[in-house]
Amino acid sequence: MATTMSNTAPQDSGNRSWRLVAIALLAVRFVQGWIYWGGGTRRFIYGPQKLDVHGHWMAYKFQTAMPGALLGTDRLVAFLLHHFTLLYAGVIIFSAVEMIAGFMLIIGLYTRLAAVATIGLSFVLMLLFGWQGATCIDEWTMASSNFAMGITLVLAGSGAYSVDNWLLARKPSLANSGLFRWLGGSLPLPLSDGAFKKLALGLFWIAVVFIVATYSYYRGSVITPFHGGPVSPAKHHWKLDHGVLQNDGGIKFHAYVNAGVAAEPSNVLEAVLVDSKTGKVVERWDSAALSSLPKSAFVNDFAYQQIHTGKFGITGPVGAQAMIHLPPTTQNMAPLPQSAYILQLESVNGHIWRVDLQY
Question: What angle, 0 to 180 degrees and rounded to 10, lies between the N-to-C axes of helices 138-156 and 16-24?
Answer without folding.
Answer: 160
